Amino acid sequence: MEILMHRIGIWIGVFLTFAIFSFLYKDNPFYKIAEQIFIGISAGYWFIYTIYNILIPNLFVPVTTDLAHNFLLLIPAFLGIFMLCRLIPSIDWVSRYALAIVVGTTAGLFFKRYLQSDVLNQLTATMLNPFASSNAVQIIGELLLIIGTLTGIVYFFFSKKHEGAFGVTARVGIYFLMVSFGAAFGYTVMARISLLIGRLNFLLGDWLGIIKP
Amino acid sequence: MKIFERFLHIDRRIIFVLIFIGVALPLIWTLGFNLEVTENVQSVYDLLEGLDPGTRILISFDYGPSTKPEIQPMTIALMEQAFTSRLRIIAIALWPMGVQMCNEAFEKVSAEYPNIEYGIDFINLGYKAGGMVTINHMAKDFRSTFPADAGGNPIDEFPIMKDIKNFDKLGCVISLSAGDPGLKQWVMIAHDTFGKPVVGGTTAVQAPTMLPYVNEQQQLVGLLGGLKGAAEYELLVNKPGFATKGMDAQSVAHLIIIFFILIGNIGYFATRKQKDTLKA
Amino acid sequence: MRRQIPLLITFFVGTLIIVSEFIPHKPFGNLSTSLEGWFLIISGFAIILGQLNLFKVNIIKISRKAPNWPYYVIALVSFSVMVICGALWGTQQQPGLIPISDKMLNFFGYKPFDYIFKYIFENLSATMFSLLAFFMASASYRAFRARSPESTLLLVAAVLVMLGRTTIGSTLTGWIPDSLGFLHLPNIASFIMKYPNTAGQRAILICAGLGVIGSSLRIILGIERSYLGGK
Amino acid sequence: MRVYILLIILIFLSFTLCAQDITFTAADNTNDDGDAIILEWNAPPSVPEMIISRSIDKENYIEIARITPLLKTYIDDDNIEDGQEYYYKLSVLNEDGDIVQSFTASAIPKAQWFNTDKISLLIMTLLLGSAIIYFIFSARKGKRLYIRKISGLDTIEEAVGRATEMGKPILFVPGINDLDDMQTIAGLNILGHLAEKVAQYDSTIYVPVCRSMVLSTAKEIVKESYLRAGRPDAFNPDSVFYLTDDQFGYVAGVDGIIMREKPAANFYLGAFYAESLILAETGFESGAIQIAGTAMPTQIPFFVAACDYTLIGEELFAASAYLSNEPNQLGSLKGQDVGKAIIIITLLVGIVLEIFGIHFLKDFLATH
User: Fold this and answer.
1) DSSP chain C
2) Residue in chain D nearest C212 by alpha carbon
3) What was the pLDDT predicted at C231?
4) CB-based contact (8 Å) between C37 and chain B?
5) pLDDT of A53 higher than 80
6) Inter-chain touch B147–A62, beta carbons under 8 Å
7) What percent of chain D has pLDDT over 90?
8) Range 58-117 of D in CB contact (< 8 A) with B
9) Are C18 and D125 inside 8 Å of each other by CB?
10) Is residue D357 part of a domain?
11) How many whole angstroms separate alpha carbon B136 and alpha carbon A108?
C-alpha cells in the first residue's frame, strides 16, 4: 500500500509541476488551481507549525503547568489576542498596542545591530593597508576595494550636485556598482538553474526513472 | 543583414526550450567537468575540522522546499562531516518549512551512521518566529526560547542540551539560509554581538550580498554559495551527491545563456553599424 | 488615546532596547530580555492572524462571487485539509489530538500532514521558483548588450562570473601555467566577487544601514507613524 | 620493594611537575549583569580530565562541569547572584578517574553600569542620532534642505507624456510588502507625484496592490493627487485595486494586466523579491518603458539589467523625499548624509593610519 501511495503521490506531483510550468505559455486554469492549492497548503502549514512549535511550548505549557512562575507570560498572551482583533474592524485599534511593542523592539534592535554590523564593522573591514601584501593581484584588489567602497558611498550622497570632481567620483562609484550588479546577476543564474535541475531530477528520476534520483 | 536583425529578437520560447533541454541532457549523460574548491568553502570546512570531537554546533534551517535543490546538498554534506568528526548538532529553524528540511536530511544521513542517537548527538528543536529578535533572545536565554524539542519533549530530558543556556557552549553557528530571516541576522547577532564564529550556506541569489561580511574581522568565517558551493563541499567530504551531479547541467545551461548573450550583442553591433552607414 | 499610547509604548520599548546595549545592569538587561521573549509569542499570534486573514478574505470573495471565485474555494479547502490533518494526527514529531493507527501510517507511508507536504507542497513550491530559470535566461539574453560604458561593465562582469562559477571555467583555462594563474577563469571570477563586487555591495550596505538607522530613529521618536495605518 | 619506592617517587615527581604547570583563576565576567564568573586554567595536555566544582561556603562543593585541559576557559552562569562570593575547586583526575590534586579560587560577580566594550558604538550612536534628529527638527522648522535631483525622475514626466500620446494606461506596482516597510511608503510617495501628472495629462493609471492596508492608503493618495491637479471628478476609485496577498498569485495577476492592457509605462517602486524578474520580463515583452526602484539588495541587479531606469537602493528613499518635500524625510536623509561624510572621512584617516602601521583607530572601532 505504501508503494501505491508513493506512486500516486509522484503522479500528483508531476501533474502539479506541469500545471505550473504551463504558466510559461500563459496564465490558465491549471496554473490557477495549482497556485491556490499552494496558497492553501502553505497557510495551513504555517498555522499548524506556529501552534505546535511556538504557542504550545512557549506559552500554553508554561502557563498551564506553572502559572506562578510564568504569570508575566499572560501579558504577551493578551497582546497576541489583541493582535487577532485586527480581524474585527470595529476593534482593530487594540492591535496597535501589540504592534507598538513589535515595532519598537524591532526598531531598537535594528538601530544598534545595523550600526554595528553594516556600518561600523564594514568601515573597519575597509581600513586596510593595501601595500602590506607582496602579491600584486591582492594589492590591486584591495585598492579596488577601497576606491570602490569610497566612491560608491559618494554616489549615494544626496546633499550635493553631481558635478566637477565630486561628479567624477560619483561616476566611478556607479561603475563599481554596475560591476557588482553584473557579477551578482552572473552569480545568481546558478540559483535559478539549480531549481530547474531539481525539478528535472524529479521528473526524470522519481517519475520516469530514466536517471537515478 | 536580415539575419542580424533576427539575432536581436529571438522568441524567448526558443530560449526556454533550449534551457530545458540543456539542463535535462547532462542529467542523463554526465560529462564530468572538473571542480576546484574555493577559499570561502575551504574556510567552512576548516572551521568544522578544527573543533574538538563532542563539541556542539548549532545549525539553523532557514529555508524551505522552494530552494531545497540548492541548499539541501549543503545540509547533507555538512551533516556528514559533523557526524564523521563526532560533532553534535543542535538543529533549529527560523522558517517553519526548515523543520521538515532538517528531518529529511537527518533521516538520509543518519542511516549511514547507526550509532548516532537522537538527543545525544543530534536534536531538532523546531521552528521559532521573530527572526533577529528571537536570535537575540536565545543568545541570552536559550532555554526559555526552546523549552521543548520539535516533538514537544522538554529539553532537560536530552543530554545534548546539558548546560546550554546561551551561545557560550557552542562551537559555532551554521545558518543554511534562503533569505530573511537567515544568515545576515545570524552574523549580526551570533557573531557581531556574542562573538561566536558564524558560517553559512546560502542560495546563489543571496551570496553576493553576503560577501562583504567575509572579511578579516570574520563576521562570516566562510560561505557556501549556491549549488557550486554545495558541490565543492561534497568534494571536500568526499561524498559526491546531487550538487556534483548538477554541476554539468549548470555548465551547459550557463553556456547556452552566454551563447545567447553573444548572439544578442553580435546582432546589436551589426545592425548598429548598418544604421550608422545609412545615416552617413 | 488610540494613537498616543501605542506611540509612547514604541518610544519606551525602542529606547530600552538601545540603552540595554550599553547598560548591562538591572533592570535594563533583564527587561530587554523579557521583551524579546514576549516578541516571540506576539509574532506567533501575528502569523496566526495572517492565516486567519487569508481565510477571511477568501470567504468574503466567495460569498460575493468575486471573479474567479471557484479558485478561492480550492485555497480554502486545501487550507482546511492541512489544518485538520495537522490537528488530528499531528506532524512527524508532534502527536495530534487522536493517535494515528498503524494501518493508516502503513497506507500513506507518512502521517497525512507530512504526505501532503512531501508530495504536494514540495513539488508546488519548487516548481514555482524554478520558473525563474527561464525568465533569467531570457532576461540575460536581451538585457546584457554593450550599449553604454555602464551596460558594458554589467555585461562583462556577468559573463566572466558565469564562466568562472561553473565547471566550464576550470576546463577552459585549466592549461594556463601557474605563473599566470590570475588569468584562470575561476580565479578571475573569485577576484571580481572578492574585490569590486564586495566594494559595490559594501557601499550599498553602509548606506542602507544608515537608512535603517534613520528610519528606526524616526519610528522610536514617533515621527514615522505609517505602521499604525493611515497617513 | 625498591621498585615500589622508585615508582612512588616517580609518581610523586610527575605530579609535582604537573602541579607546577597548572594554574587556576576565577574572576568576574566583565560587562554583564553580574550573572557570570569566568574560570581560566592552564594545564598540560597530558591530564586526562578535570572537574570543576563550586561552593558558596567553602565546604560543600558541587560538581558543575567535567573538562579537558584543551578547553582553556569556562564561564559559569548557572544561578550566579550579583555580589555573592563563590569558591571554585579544580580537581585533577588521573587515568583511573581518581582525584590526585585540587586547586581553589574564588570570585565575586559584579554587575556593571556601563559596557566598556561598546564605547565606539555609543559614540557613533550619539553622533548619527543627533545629526538625524537635528536635521529633522530644523527641516520641520522650515529650513530649506537641498537634495540633488534624482536623474531617473525626469523619466516620469516623459513616460506619462508618451502614454497619453499612445492612448495607453500606466501601471504602478508598489511592491509586495505591507506599510511597515519603508520601501512601500517611499513607493507610495512617488505614486502621489505620478498620479498628479497622470491627472494633468488626462491619462489612466492602474495600481494593483497585494495588501489590504496598502490598498486604502494608495487609494487615498491617488485621490488626493487628482484633487491637487484640480480634477477630482476624473478620479476612478477602481483604478486602485487589491489582487491577492500571495506572491506568485499577485505576479500572475499583474502579468495578466500587462498582457491585456499593454501599458505604455510600468513603474515598480517598493519592496520586491523573486517576482522582480518575472514582472520586468513580461513588461519588456509588452513593449513598455520600465522604471523600477527597490532597496532589496538581492533584486537590484535584476531591475538594473531588465528595466530602462532603476532607482538603486537609497535612491528610492531620496526620490520619495525629493518629490514629497516632507520635512521628516528630508531631514532624515540629510542626517544620513552627514553620517556618510563622517564615514568617508574616518575611512580615509583609518586607511592612512593603517598604511603607516598605526592600528589605534581600527582597533578602537572594531569592538566586541
Assistant:
1) -TTHHHHHHHHHHHHHHHHHHH--STTHHHHHHHHHHHHHHHHHHHHHHHHHHHHHHHHHHHHTT-TTHHHHHHHHHHHHHHHHHHHHHB-SSSB-SSPPPHHHHHHHSS-HHHHIIIIIIHHHHHHHHHHHHHHHHHHHHHH---SSHHHHHHHHHHHHHHHHHSHHHHHHTTTS-GGGGGGSHHHHHHHHIIIIIHHHHHHHHHHHHHHHHHHHHHHHTTS--GGGS--
2) D182
3) 42
4) yes
5) yes
6) yes
7) 55
8) 65, 68, 70-71, 75, 77-78
9) yes
10) no
11) 12
- One domain, residues D52 and D149: no
pLDDT for the residue numbered A41: 94
pLDDT in tens, B22-42: 999 999 988 777 788 999 999
- Number of structural domains chain D divides into: 2
> Predicted ipTM?
0.92
What average pLDDT score do residues C97-124 get? 92
Nearest CA in chain C to A192: C133
Looking at the whole model, is its pTM more than 0.90? yes
Quick one: D149 and D208 in the same domain?
yes
Residues D148, A162: C-beta atoms closer than 8 Å = yes
Instruction: Say yes or no for a CB contact (<8 Å) between D32 and C128.
Output: no
Banded model confidence at residue C218, pLDDT cuts 50, 70, 90: very high
Give me the residue spans of the domains in chain C.
Answer: 1-66, 67-136, 144-231
Q: What is the pLDDT of residues B199-242, one digit of tens each?
A: 999 999 999 999 999 998 899 999 999 999 999 999 999 999 99
- Residue ranges of chain D whose pLDDT lies below 50: 17
What's D80's domain CATH number?
Answer: 2.60.40.10
**D273 occurs within a structural domain:** yes
D233: which 3 cell numbers? 471628478
Chain C CB within 8 Å of residue D113 CB: yes
Examine the pLDDT at A172 and tell me if it is beyond 50. Answer: yes
- Contact flag B129-C47 (C-beta cutoff 8 Å): yes
> Would residue D55 count as lying in a domain?
yes
Chain B residues at the D interface, defined by Cβ less than 8 Å, are 12, 52, 163, 165-166, 168, 179, 192-193, 195, 205-206, 208-209, 217
Contact D347 A150 (CB under 8 A): yes
B4-13 pLDDT, tens digit per residue, is: 888 888 888 8
Across chain C, which distance is largest between two alpha carbons, in Å?
75
> Cβ contacts (< 8 Å) between D301 and chain B: which residues?
208
Nearest-by-CA chain B residue for C196: B212
Which subunits have 3 or more CB–CB pairs within 8 Å of chain B? A, C, D
